Amino acid sequence: MLEAAPRERARRPGVRVLTLCSLVLLTSSCTDPSPKKKPPAQPTEEVMGSKEPMLAPDAPSVRSAEDVTLPPIESWLGRGLQRSYLVEGVDGSQAFITIDDDTITLADMDAQLRAMPMPAVSHLGDPNGRVAFAEQTVGFELLAREGERLGLASSPKVMFAEIKALAGALRQKVVDGEFGQAPTTEEVQAYYAENAVRFNRAEERVAALITGPSLQDLEKLRENLLNEAPTATSARLELFEAAALAHSTHPSKIAAGRIPALPRASKDLPEPVLDALFALSPNELSAAMPMGDEFVLVMLVSTRPAQNRPFAEVEEMLRTQLLRSRAPALFNTLKEGWLAKSTCEAHPEALDGVIAPPTPVDFPSTLAAQPGQEQAVVVACGETTLTLELAIAALETWPARAQGEVLNGQSRQAFVERLTELATIAEEARRQGLADSRFVRLARKRGIVEALEKTLAVTRDPDSISEEEARERYVANVEAYHRAERRRMVELVVGSEKEAQKLRAELLTQAPEPNQARADALRALSAKLSIDPQVKRMKGSLPYLSAEPEPELAVPERLRQEAFALERYALSAPIELDGKWALVLVDGVREGVTVPFEQASASIRHALALEPAKKARADLLASLTKAHRIETHPEVLAGMNLPDIRHDH
Fold this sequence. Notes:
Layout: E1 44-47, E2 50-53, H1 74-77, E3 95-99, E4 102-105, H2 106-114, H3 118-122, H4 127-149, H5 156-175, H6 185-194, H7 196-199, E5 200-201, E6 204-212, H8 215-228, H9 234-247, E7 258-263, H10 271-277, E8 289-291, E9 294-304, E10 307-308, H11 311-341, E11 345-346, E12 354-355, E13 368-369, E14 377-381, E15 384-387, H12 388-395, H13 400-408, H14 412-431, H15 438-457, H16 467-476, E16 482-483, E17 486-494, H17 497-510, H18 516-529, H19 533-537, E18 545-546, H20 557-563, E19 575-577, E20 580-590, E21 593-594, H21 597-610, H22 613-627, E22 630-632, H23 645-648
Antiparallel strand pairs: 1-2, 3-4, 3-22, 5-10, 6-7, 6-9, 8-9, 11-14, 12-13, 14-15, 16-21, 17-18, 17-20, 19-20
Helix pairs in contact: 4-15, 4-22, 5-12, 5-14, 5-15, 6-11, 8-9, 13-14, 15-22, 16-21
C-alpha cells in the first residue's frame, strides 16, 4: 500500500546567488584568511566553464593522468561579449563617484558593468545594491591610486592585463556594431517573428504528477495527503513532492514529480488529465484517474499567465541577441585578416629562461625568469612586445597542468602561437586608437590593485614562521593534503535489460577498441536514448567520484563500485538500478596523491605569512578614505539599462 512519504522538502537544483562580493572589483576583500580548526572543503578551479577539484591553496597541484588541452585565447580575452548598459540619450558624463578633483563617470562604470556577471549587475536595480556598489568602487579607486603612486603600474602582470584588455576592447567594438554588422530593424523583426512563441504564448500550467499501477493505492495516497495538509498551501505541495520522490513510477520522479509548463493545447498529457489540470487552483489535488496503463494524481504547482510582448518592448533585447550571436564569427573573420597581415616575430627559445623549481608532484603556480633574461623577447608585434616576464604572467593565468605542458616543451609552440595571436589583436587595437579606452584603463587599475594587495600581504617573513606553527596548520588541514583517486564515468540508462544488452553489443561493434572513441560513442547514445532526463541532459557524464561514499553526490553506490572495478574505457555489463538498466564506462582517472609535511612546509609558511593581509588592507583603506574628499552618487545608476533577469537571461 502506498503511504504519503514523511514531510521532507524535495531536493532541487540550487541557484547560486551572486553577492556584491562577486562584483569583480576586489575579490580578495571577500575572503577570510583566518585559520580554520576544521579541514576545509576542497576548493575548485574554474577553467573555461568546467570545475576541477584541487588540493588546498597551501598544497602543490597534482598532475592528472588525463591529456592536457591548453586553454584557448578566449581565456585571456575574458568573459563573453556584452552590450552597453548606457541608455541612449542619458548623459554618460554624470559623476558616479568623485575623489578629490577626479570624477568616475557613468560611462566609466559602463565598462565595469560589462565585465560583471549579469546576475550581479541585476543587484544594482535595488537602491541598497547601488549604494554598496558605490562603496566598493570607492575602495577600488583608492587602492588603484595608491598602487600607482607606489610605482606598481609597470609590473609584468599589470602590463599583461593591459595587453589582454586591448584585445578585449577590440572584440567589444565588434559586438557594439562598429564594423557595420549591426542588425537592421527588418532583421530584428524577422527574428521576432521566428521566436514569436517566446513572447506570445497562451496560458501555461506547471504540474506535478504521481503515477502508479493501482487506483486503490493512489486514492489512499490522496486521502493521506489531504488529511495531513487539508488546505491548498505550499505544505501540501511539499508533501506531494516527497511522495512523488518515494512512490511515483513516472519519469518526473527524479524532479519530485514536476513536469515542464504545458499549454491547454498540449499533447504531452491525455485530454482528461489536461482537463483536470486546468480545472485546479494552485496546490489543489485532482482525483486519481487513468493515464495509459497506469493511474495518476495531478497537482497544480503554478500558473503562467498568457503573455503578449509586442515587438517595441523587446526590440532592443533582440537586437542585442542577434548582434551577440553574429559577433564571434565576425570577430574570428576579422582576426584571420589581421593575422594574415601580421609581421610578428616569435622566439619560443626565450622560454628556456623560465625558472620552474621541480617538485615531485607538478609545476608550481609561481614562475620566474632567469636573472638578466627578464626582457628577452618572446613575441614582438609593433608596439606590442611580450617579454619573458610578460609571457610568465600569461602562463600563470593557466592551470598548473597546462603550465607543465608548456614548460616541458610538449605544448610550447602552441603557447607561443596563442601569445602571437593575442599580440596581433592588441596591436590592431592600438592602431584603432583603443590604447586609452575605458576597458584598458579599468584593466590597468585592476592589475595595480592586485599588485598592491600582494605587497600588503607580505607582512611576515615566511622564514620566521617556526616548524611547530607550520606543522600545527598542516595537522589542522591534513585532509587538504591528501587526494584520493577519483574516476569519471559515462552512463546510458534504458528501460530494460534486453535493450541494454542490445545497445552494448552495438556499441562494442561500433567502437571495438577501449579508447576515447568508445566513450564519445556512449555519450552520443546517452544524449539520444537515456530515459533518465538528468542523465540525458548531461549526455551521460557523471561527476568525478572517489571510492568512498560522498553524500553530496547523488550517485547510486553500485555505480561508484563499478567506477573502481572497471578498467579505463571498458564497457560494463547491464547494471540494474531501481528498475532501470545502465551501461557505464570509465573515461577519466585522477590519480591519488598525499603531500607530506616536508613538501608542503614552504607553501604553508607562505600562506601563514599572507594571513595579516585582510587587516592591512582594511587599515590602508581607512587611512586613504580619511586623506581624500569623496562623494558618491549611486542614484545615477538608476538611469542605466540594467538587465531584467526574468526576461533577458
